[in-house]
Amino acid sequence: MMSIWKYALLVFLGGCSYGVVSTFVKLAYSEGFTVNDVTGTQYFFGAIMLWTLAIFIPKNNLSLKQLLILLISGTPMGLTGIFYNQSLKYVDASLAIILLLQFTWIGIILQLLLDKKIPNQKNLIATAVILFGSVLATGILSNSLSFSFIGLGWGLLSALSFASFIYISGRTTIPIHPIRKSALMTTGATILVFFILPPDFLINGSLTDGLLPFALFFAFFGSFLPPLLFNIGMPKVGSGLGNILSASELPTAITMSTLILKEHVTLSQWVGVTIILIGIAYPNLQQLQRPFNEKMKGG
């Protein structure tokens, strides 16, 4: 039986998996590929990989209504990919990931507006900490900073759509295996992406002209591996620890962009990243302690 630490490692690696994608999106752009190519292939091939795995999962008898709900629930995921990859055209990968991480406090606002759920003191403190860390991490206070407001807008839209995806996913209670659920939702995302960004790569020869290796990389690390690792690890470690561990996406993305893309990240920006991680961890620390200890004793 896997120990709790091994399940925790899987969740951590799932976050890291998301984190490596943005660097290679920038590399794909430098090779002349487009947002259509990058986003379309990520979800298209990701859906194929998930459905290949789903073949070995027992089928669920879903009604047409349930099937449509799951497909539609995946559309915010597709929007997140479009917005995030658009932002990467205009801003550094290290900035784009920080903008995406703003979904943490946007989700709190969504709950307030849609569910009339007033945020507790911990969430308010966490929001303030994350915003403060984001100011440092983006380098917005630096006199030498210059960045695209278009890229900033796309990045914040990706945060809004991702917060919407999490909100909707948490309310989709259809009884279905997580892998099959991921496959259906990724299919819904693919349909939306193809509607907004025509899949020219299917007919223009891009796949055989250097796009295919990028496509398989984006699909595996962006659409296939993270849901698989999260589905295995999250139920064992709990949502509190899971939220903290999955935030590994942030330092991974910034480290990769620094090492491979040679993006310059200052000490104050790294301090900001650390503060953001503290803000993400803070509201989860107490709630994870008891369940985690119980799992350790039982496991």
TrEMBL record:
Q: Can you say where in the cell this protein is located?
A: Endomembrane system
The way it spans or sits in the membrane comes to:
Multi-pass membrane protein
Which regions span the lipid bilayer? 7-29, 41-58, 67-84, 90-112, 124-141, 147-170, 182-199, 211-229, 241-261, 267-285
In what residue span(s) does the EamA domain sit?
Answer: 6-137, 150-281
GO CC entries: membrane
Q: Which UniProt keywords apply?
A: Membrane, Transmembrane, Transmembrane helix
Could you tell me which Pfam families the record lists for this protein? EamA
Give the domain of life: Bacteria
Say yes or no: keyword Protein biosynthesis present: no
* UniProt record similarity statement: Belongs to the EamA transporter family.
Q: What is this protein called?
A: DMT family transporter
